[in-house]
Amino acid sequence: MQSMLSINHLTVAVNGKEILRDFSLTINPGEVHAIMGPNGTGKSTLAATLAGREEYEVVSGEILYKGRNLLEMEADERAREGIFLAFQYPVEIPGVSTTNFMKAAVNAKRKHQGLEPLDAREFLKLMNEKAQLVDIKREFLSRSINEGFSGGEKKRNEIFQMAMLEPSLCILDETDSGLDIDALRIVANGVNRLRSPERSFLVITHYQRLLNYIIPDYVHVLFDGRIAKSGGKELALKLEAEGYDWVKEELVAD
Amino acid sequence: MAESDKIIDEVVGSDYKYGFVTPIEEELAPRGLSEDTIRFISAKKQEPEWMLEWRLKAYRAWLQMKEPGWQNVRYPKIDFQDIIYYAAPKKKKEIKSLDDLDPEIRATYDKLGIPIQEQKILAGIAVDYVMDSESVFTTFREALREKGIIFCSISEAIREHEDLVRRYLGTVVPPRDNFYAALNSAVFSDGSFVYVPKGVRCPMELSTYFRINAENSGQFERTLIIADEGSYVSYLEGCTAPKRDENQLHAAVVELIALDNAEIKYSTVQNWYPGDKEGKGGIYNFVTKRGLCKGAYSKISWTQVETGSAITWKYPSCILKGDHSIGEFYSVAVTNNHQQADTGTKMIHIGKNTRSRIVSKGISAGRSQNSYRGLVQIHATAENAYNFSQCDSLLIGDKCGAHTFPYLEIKNNTGKVEHEATTSKIGEDLLFYCNQRGLSDEEAVSLIINGYCKEVFQHLPMEFMVEAQKLLSISLEGSVG
Amino acid sequence: MENIATQFKSLANSFSKESLALRKEALASFQKLGIPTTRHEEWKYTNIKARLRQEFSLLPAESRVNKAVKNYIASLPPYTYRLTFLNGVFHPELSIIPDLKGVTVCSLREAAAHTGGIVEKHFGRLVDYSQEHFAALNTAFVTDGAFIHIHKNVAVNEPIYLQYFFTATDEYAFVQTRNLVVLEEGASLSLAEDFRNASNIDVQYNHVAEMYVGNNARLDVVELQLEVSNAIGIHTLESKVNRNGRLSAATITFSSPNTGTGQSLIRNNLTARLTGEGAHAEFAGLYFGKENALIDNHVLIDHIAPNCTSNQLYKGVLSDEATGVFNGKIFVKPGAQKTNAYQSSKALLLSKGASVNSKPQLEIFADDVKCSHGAAIGQLDENALFYLMTRGVSRHEATQILTYAFAHEVVEHIQTKPIRQFLCDKLRDELHLNF
Fold this sequence. Notes:
Chain A contains nine helices and twelve strands.
């Protein structure tokens, strides 16, 4: 079976400073991987690098996505090929409604796949269907993207967009940050409904809380730019109970 | 608001504390300006021939130039033939140590709160004292000399460090730059000279204290600071003048040159006599100050607190020629009674990745007019240049004016320029909040204004910061409400 | 300048007797002022002297209806009301003039003859032809324009379009047009001034409008400069807003001259004088410049009375070698306490040769005020571009979307709904967006 994502010995620098160092990870179709770790260990760098942010300089190593060299693709091509990043801090864009934006994005992807653009009726149908997934109201979608949205609304909008674009690999960058328990449940439910044998998830989080709702197949602890420890979902519980220090100690002991 | 008017009056109305005259014998040039005046000055200073020629050339250029009229200030025409271009305290004997200094001069600086004494060692400041046209004394020369730092009067530098002066003088502010720069180039009498050699971090603050003493005289000092590769220097300048009914002209030129990786920090607390409450007398402060960030990664930072002068007209500027160079301008300008200020900066971005920052705080009270005028220029060569400007004006009373004239000229599409400006009075809600916590209006205003200026003050060296805060309260005494 | 005097003499017979004294005064003033150079502070960044054909002709050009005009009129939505001018000459057969009680709409020339003192009382009273070069020229030579007078408490419910077409065949023609709009107390009106170059040469025109907004009256104006490529156009709008009156004016400029010999220079001078307490003025501007276009917006809001408010919002998008100029001033006169004024100007530089000169100014002579301005010049936000790209939108399309968003804020400010809608569509077309 071909892996969804295969990261091999990846080193990434920002402004000349190495953040990820010799990082490797493989994700197969249908799997949910959680990446945990203290602040400043490179979690968000991983997400941004996968999505194709230019300031993140790949110093060495490779990333294969569905067997293809991901690093050769621009951010938009990656998205059209099925990579979706739910931002930790979604950008506010005054003047453009989510509806119009999604229309442009969905049709860009369809064009890429050699499909006809959706007409207005088909598009609205699709949008209504997906909006229900995350409990988003119609009038919400005609407002400017994320402008004046609460933290919870922004994250719901991210999951809505994820549903609209039907990606193969979903990256959730600290999607739980700033959410109250109700919003967390709505967001997690949305994600769970999108789980399928063809779709993989990379869930980046600081706290175990989100993983009560989105049950991962694998949990990795990121420390100092590389994976220090991997395990099943029980690893997350141990981290929740005991903190990150013991991982650090183990690392030093090694 | 009657109560507040009263307080404004109290804050603004206080007297100028530095308005006394020092009774020393002065040596004066004949009144008026001609080639002979210039020869007289040059001869007094025992200058080499090239210097005299340089001055004469500037003078001839000046004759062809017109006095500028675009500033937002009004004043009667200056009679350039009615000014004494050279006045110097008569030296009784050669000054080798502090004990040789005329006791009257020492007393003057003591009165000004800047005693010429070894205490300054503790403060870590080396000071050059300039009275009228002459540098009277420079402290700590030896300590500096050990590091290879030259800190002396410009007259001495012309004699002793001819090569350096000749190489850099007029390269940042050419004699023909503007009317007053040309005049200065022709008649400048003294000022400070600083050279910091490669890789040296100047261990103390260098400072010049300017004092206009003689009657009917103008002060035309010239300052030249060169920071060689990888060096650092912080320079302070303070100014006062006696109270006189006539207006006196001060037309200085300051040139700064920073080579690769060098940094110059230049701070001014300007407290020339502002004239009386009716607007009589005071200094016309027409100054050209400009720094050249010549080398890559160089940095020039101007900080000014302008409280004095009847008219202030100056734009300390940075030419950001070296790639990655940085220019900064932090300014507080306070005008009261009939004072007029037209001040600001120019940030000229030429090199790649150059950055600049402008923070200007204007405070107008009484019947004064206070203008910010600034230019940000991003040339086509300046890839990824960035400027941020913040210009705030505060009005105290309804008879004064506050004006903002920024010019933004952007010729590179990778550049980014952001400019913000606000004009308002002190908010009633702020005052009330302070009152509710037990502060009087006057205390509240002082507190609020100091907070308003904090962003600028924090760039001053410690001793100056305290002085500036005091000066601010004195300038605005009685104006509050 | 001698040529100007000769031209004036040859036209003098066609001018109304009442206007002659004023015209002569304005002519003398123009002869003194001449065409400004870049040494003139208000023309520092706009070298009009170099661009304007110096030997211009002020004699009325022929005003035949050409095919471009016919086609254009045929393509128009059925405007309820419009006055159409060709090269400054009124064409009643192309116009639809409202016939409403308390509303006088006619050509300025007719108005001078029939409306008694109203024209004389208002014409040339707001523009300062002793100082303003082009207002002086216009006042001396204007041939025709629109006159609108709305009586007390009358509201006109449909917008009136004042259309100016240029079909000149003589490239030395310098067309002088003029509008006079008077709103009495409590009146309201929505107005569009629409300028189009319908010729295949570079045209030159100089338009002046004087607008009076009475107590509690409301006037919304949109200046459409969408088809003014290959033109040198100078627009002056002088207005006076009385107690509790309200004026909104927006200028929308799209300029992309054909490459080669074509050139484009649009200069807008907008002034509002708030002379009565509680008056409000709102200026908005949107400009798109391409090729070697130069678009210059000069804006002045003069707070004379206390308790007035004003707002300015200007946005420019410049590509190729285009240049934008913004010069905005908030003036608060002594005694204009409790003024609240805001100004924002932003420009996007989308290509290497594009440039912007901006001069946002505050001149404040009263203390109990809140005045501020913000100016920003730069590029689109990289974070936003990246965000859009992670959704699969190409960099190019993301740029178009964000440019749309940037510009849309100005269009939102337009009060007249059909014009706002029309401009939204225009914006999408211009940026090739199909949402």
